[in-house]
Amino acid sequence: MLEFLRPDLVEFVAYQAHPGGELPTGVEIDRLDTNECPYQLPEALKEKLCLTYQNLIETNRYPGGDHTDLKRVIAQYVNEACSAIANGTAEAIAPGQISVGNGSDELIRSILIATCVGGRGRVLVAQPTFGMYGILAQTLGIPVERVGRSPKTFEIDLDAARQVIAQAQLTPSPVRVVWMVHPNSPTANALTTAELNWLRGLPSNILVVIDEAYFEFSRRTVVGELQARPNWVVLRTFSKAFRLAAHRVGYAIANPELSAILEKVRLPYNLPSFTQAAALAALAHRRDLLAIVPEILTERDRLLQQLRALPGLELWDSQANFLYARLKGAANTDEAMAHLVQQLKQQGTLIRHTGGGLRITVGTPAENARTVDRMRVALAQTVASR
Ligand SMILES: *Cc1c(COP(=O)(O)O)cnc(C)c1O
Description:
Blueprint: H1 7-11, E1 30-31, H2 43-55, H3 68-80, H4 83-86, E2 98-101, H5 103-115, E3 122-126, H6 132-139, E4 144-147, H7 158-169, E5 175-181, H8 193-200, E6 207-211, H9 215-218, H10 223-226, E7 232-237, E8 250-254, H11 256-265, H12 273-284, H13 286-290, H14 293-308, E9 313-315, E10 322-327, H15 334-347, E11 349-350, E12 352-354, E13 357-361, H16 365-385
Parallel strand pairs: 1-11, 3-4, 3-5, 5-6, 6-7
Antiparallel strand pairs: 2-8, 7-8, 9-10, 10-13, 12-13
Helix pairs in contact: 2-12, 3-12, 5-6, 5-11, 14-16, 15-16
Pyridoxal-5'-phosphate is lined by residues 35, 103-105, 130, 181, 185, 211, 213, 237, 239-240, 245, 250.
């Protein structure tokens, strides 16, 4: 080992989007392992963006660093999509409360830098959940506390969470941040009233992050409560319903004081010019782009029913654009699930084996039909191999 390296990073296993193995040839490849929208931007919008690139973007110039236009339009979108703000019962979000990042991944890192770095604190996550919170914390040398969830409903073990927080508060490294996904990935359940009440009751020296990456599918948001809670921040992304995963744009909605710090710690030119143009174009056409959401939700419910009809698979209701499944009963071992994922992959369908279960993205109608067919085959092979 090179002596100047941090030993904890040498040991550390990085995130892999599509872990290992060859893809088959001669079959349709369905990438249902990263929860993207199955559709690209419409052709006409792509052409418009090409023209923007050709005519407006000066490739020799650094991108705009203050994101003024983008923040203004994001705030507009956030406000119109929050019923409490739209009907006047909650105060609107101002552009100065928005911070944009190179994907919400960058914002996760900025939040960690702003709160915990240098031995100042640790973070709390409820497993299973989105892996980047723990991964990015570890790369910054920040300790991660993990509590569990109910194996049936995936509700957070709140007693354990209270205990972890109480114990850590007595140390020089208290819990500074609690990470929540609403609805959670990979389990697709939204926060319950009890969980939200627990979050509301956390002391003001703990930052509550509510990641609403799947907001456009769930239509659930806590944005209406944000102005009353300076220790809450909401994360959103353009990588899912807005179809811009290739461009890397996420945003945080926060108290202005926190937003100002997030702006200080980010890289000066974190969003390339073309990425900013793409986000602005997607927002300008948000009605058209989001018109696909009802189709995906209908497809989700159909896929859920059809997969539930297969023997051996247990599935949960979903508030997002993906499903969470496990093998029934004693057959639900990591080894059997890895085998199943492999059997699906050999047929061309990629899904994700994570958090003790299987996460399946809802695709196009054709992809979903293949998912059911291929899952039937894979289940039979997995049972036969036991
Ligand atoms: C997909 C996803 C994101 C998006 O991350 P980006 O960096 O914006 O692409 C964030 N949080 C969760 C929980 C996700 O599932």
